[in-house]
Amino acid sequence: MKNPEAQQDVSVSQGIRMMFYVMKPSETSFQTLEEVPDYVRKATPLFISLMLLELVVGWIRKGKPPGGLDDALASLSAGIMSRLPRLFYRSIELTSYVYIWENYRVISLPWDSPWTWYLTFLGVDFGYYWFHRMAHEVNIMWAGHQTHHSSEGYNLSTALRQSVLQIYTSWIFYSPLALFIPPSVYAVHLQFNLLYQFWIHTEFHHLVNIWTTFWATPGSFNKFSVIFKGPGWSPGKPRLGLIEEIPEVEGKEVPFSSSASQLLKIYVVIQFALILAFYEETFADKAVLSQVTLLLRVCFIILTLTSIGFLLDQRPKAAVLETFRCLVFLMLCRSGHLKPCISSLSFAFEIFFSICIAFWGVRSVKQLVSDPWR
To answer: Within a 10 A sphere around the Cβ of 330, how many other Cβ atoms?
Structure first.
């Protein structure tokens, strides 16, 4: 059995190789689920570095900085949101798997056998194929998966645009493996399968569309079909809808681009970098943080990502929301629920956010005075 503490560190070589799914069974086999490293969290610096490299290469090739800042930040925000529930409880993909393993397993394959490792590799990939296919063919599953396809770009950041709802259906397709494969082996491959997708890559409102269509469609069987047939289905059409109704891509479409000023975009990037560091620190310290502190931090992360979206979209209440967010930051700092990664910078952070409160507060008052009903 390997030492659980020794498994917490991932070398640079392992970090690079795990992104390509070329790790060896001998270095990624663990007896217990608790020993399995959080490979996805440890890959975050690599995600950021590779996206920055992609940005630099695109800049050099085109002679100007590529656009799509708002799209990239939206993808990163979705990735952060999808991971936040794991601060409080183990994902349903693991919880359901462990339950089946403990109560219904048929045989127990050895956790340290290379044959078990490679069999799990094939099993997880096979399960993902069927989940991904059904996520495109079953409307209610598409509602969770479509977040991943909502980007107008096709770059490395798009792979991080994960849905917070997707795991509530994906676990079904992996559960047969729990009849014979140990949870620790499954947990390793579940993460590697996700990491590999970073290399191989239009709307999170679809649940509302299903709800509206469900009640507008007559007949109990048709209502059932709205949920479990394809996103393009309606009465009288094939299960997946009509192929001629799929919009043609002509190449003349103009991607959405934020009208925010360059100065505001710089401010947004700084705030996003701060919240990303804060997010990483929260996951690293979750074992020693109280449930109240974790809850407050999660709420602040969500508030920050929402405010960033409002600022880039130039929403009418963006200044009010950002003023409130900065006030919340100071309150959390002074109550001990939040602190900068470098404690010596606490005073500088308070000064910075106080200036932000003053700036956005003035903007809010001016807006309310000029148009109180907006």
So the answer is: 16
CA 327 – CA 41 distance, rounded (Å)? 29
- Report the pLDDT averaged over residues 41-63: 82
The pair of three-digit structure tokens given for residue 364, joined into one six-digit string: 């809010």
- Show the CA angle centred on residue 46, arms to residues 44 and 48, nearest 5°: 70
Nearest to 87, CA basis, from 277, 275, 292, 272:
292
Average pLDDT (90-108) is 94
pLDDT at residue 36 above 90?
yes
Crossing angle of helices 183-196/92-104, nearest 10°?
150
What value does the mean pLDDT take over residues 82-106?
91
Q: Helix, strand, or coil here: 254?
A: coil
Provide the CA 223 distance to its chain's centre, in angstroms: 31
Answer yes or no: are the C-beta atoms of 162 and 84 closer than 8 Å. Answer: no
Task: With beta carbons less than 8 A apart as the criterion, state whether 311 and 264 touch.
Answer: yes
Q: Which amino acid makes up residue 316? A: P
The pLDDT of residue 371 is 63
299 closest CA partner among 284, 273, 314, 278: 278
Give the chain's mean pLDDT.
86
The DSSP 8-state label assigned to residue 31 in this structure reads: S
Q: Which residues of the chain form beta strands (DSSP E)?
A: none
pLDDT band at 3 (very low <50, low <70, confident <90, very high): very low
Cβ atoms of 161 and 71 within 8 Å: the answer is no
134-138, 254-258, 268-272: segment of lowest average pLDDT: 254-258
Tokens of residue 71, six digits: 């799209």
Instruction: Give the number of other CB atoms < 10 A from CB of residue 161.
Output: 23
Please name the residue ranges forming H helices in 146-261: 167-174, 183-196, 206-216, 220-228
Q: CA–CA distance from 356 to each of 61, 235, 337, 352 (Å)?
A: 36, 54, 20, 6
Residues 6+ apart with CB under 8 A from 2: 30, 31, 35
- The predicted pLDDT at position 373 comes to 52
What's the confidence (pLDDT) of residue 41? 86
Give the span between the Cα atoms of 268 and 309, in whole angstroms: 9
Q: Contact at 8 Å (CB) between 12 and 18?
A: no
Sign, CA dihedral 7-86-269-339, equals: negative
